[in-house]
Amino acid sequence: MYRSYRLNLAYKTDESTLKEYFSRYGDLVTVQIKRNPDSNASKGFGFIRYSDIQSQIMCLSERHNIDGRWCDVRIPISKLEGDRQEVSRKVFVGGITEFITADLLRDHFSQFGRVIDVFIPKPFRSFAFVSFEDPQVATDLLGKDQVIEGVTLSIGSAVPKLPPQQN
């Protein structure tokens, strides 16, 4: 089995929709939407896991629009990765639209601390990275959604890609 991927989702998306959508890339062994234990309402994110590496690669190579929302597919931070992660000045900003510019991001995040870099990949892939002068600012923002131009953005750790495992 291969690692699970975290997805930011529309609140109306359910497990059957996820399974139907992502099964086009291969055999899914996990499809899970995180829910509020009191109301059973979606928390707006979930996880998928594939049984083979080819499916994983195909899934990560494309953008995904599910129930009218562009979904980021990314690797969650595991305890193992957290143990070896250095203090980072950079945060991952997920869920941006084509209308959210580097200047808008810089202006918004400057309220928390001095921004030293904003990176939006080209071609556009609905995420960005924001780097701060003070690593504590980045740490304080983790997991705290932000709203810019009416768009809710998820803030996560900017985890570097792991090197391939040697067998």
Automatic annotation (TrEMBL):
Tell me yes or no: is RNA-binding among this UniProt entry's keywords.
yes
| Primary location | nucleus
Q: Does the keyword Heme apply?
A: no
RRM domain span? 2-80, 89-160
SUPFAM superfamilies annotated for this entry? RNA-binding domain, RBD (SSF54928)
Q: Which GO terms describe its cellular component?
A: chromatin; nucleoplasm
Q: Which Gene3D superfamilies would you find in this protein's record?
A: 3.30.70.330
Q: Which domain of life is it from?
A: Eukaryota
Biological process terms from the Gene Ontology for this record are: regulation of gene expression
User: What GO molecular function terms would the record report?
Assistant: RNA binding
Q: List where in the cell it is found.
A: Nucleus
Enumerate the UniProt keywords alphabetically. Answer: Nucleus, RNA-binding
List the PANTHER family hit by this protein, alphabetically. Answer: RNA-BINDING (RRM/RBD/RNP MOTIFS) FAMILY PROTEIN, TAR DNA-BINDING PROTEIN 43
Q: What is this protein called?
A: SJCHGC08328 protein
Give the species this sequence originates from.
Schistosoma japonicum
